[in-house]
């Protein structure tokens, strides 16, 4: 189950049509999965606004750069890192 809704993602992406709904939903799942692994824990429910903003930033990046290849380094943006830093589990494994 996603915690960022399709409607929230479409509003963020400024997408009005429905023909990419399945694709956008898959991006939400990918972004939430990545952020959960990055944080080292399950996403909290309810999701704090900074984490939701980071999910939307990542969804937007994946949507806009859907054909990105290995010719450029993919790095996380400063805003993304700043939004997630307070929620990241720093336990030693």
From TrEMBL:
Q: Give the residue range of the signal peptide.
A: none
InterPro entries xrefs:
Phage_gp6-like_head-tail, Phage_HK97_gp6-like
Q: Which Gene3D superfamilies match?
A: Phage gp6-like head-tail connector protein
Q: What is this protein called?
A: DNA packaging protein
Name the source organism.
Pseudomonas frederiksbergensis
Task: Report the domain of life of the source organism.
Answer: Bacteria
